[in-house]
Amino acid sequence: MSVATSPWQLVDDNTRTDTLHSAYGDRVLLKRRTGGYDGKGQHWLKQAEATTIPDDWRNEAIAEQAINFDEEVSLVGVRTQDGRCLFYPLTLNLHQDGILMASIAPLSRLAPLQAEAETMLSKVMNGLDYVGVMAMECFRVGEHLMVNELAPRVHNSGHWTQAGCHINQFELHLRALCNLPMHQPQVNFQCVMVNLIGVDKDDRWLSLPNAELFWYNKEVRVGRKVGHLNLSVHNKAMLNDSIKQLKSWMPQQYQAPLDWILAEFA
User: Which residues of the chain have pLDDT under 70?
Assistant: First the structure.
């Protein structure tokens, strides 16, 4: 099983920081092999800052070369018990401080990458004899994709399917596990997903005509995902109005992600 990834190696007792810089350049990312999410379990080795490998990361992490990518996309797919693989359209994602802030799907400009992405994720799921939904986060580098991370589960970047598809990722996962009839998910309309990170619930969000609010009833803490908004894109004017309204209600850390959405639909 071979798919394109950043060059990487295991970090063990003998791994030297200078050797990693010689192999991968002045920026090397350490990733813990378990327990990492939302930017947690990551440690940068930066030659200019003389950062070093933490002792308790040895034999617990990999080191990989930093990639200068064009943008981040993800593919959510499912593998059935009889080995069929089905996929949603590629999703465009924006991360901020290692946390997914917003997703857009589908996008016609990503369609040329769909077949490559499906081939890559099929290799992974078939190679693992996997059953259920899996998400593959990728860097787009020029006209091709490089796998960044895999999530063997339903995924944040697939939440848009709750509004945009006739079978959402949660139902798709359960159908695969329970060996229920499976169909190619049909996209009803384009969607934008906005993650709610460390913000209090605001009932004004419900006044947006194209919004669905999913609130997790978690304690609100800085950097914690506490819900998400799905905005259906019935037309650009409605979406633009909703995003501009959100900009007036939401804190500073949301201004850049919301502007990113507006720019994608300009």
Answer: 1
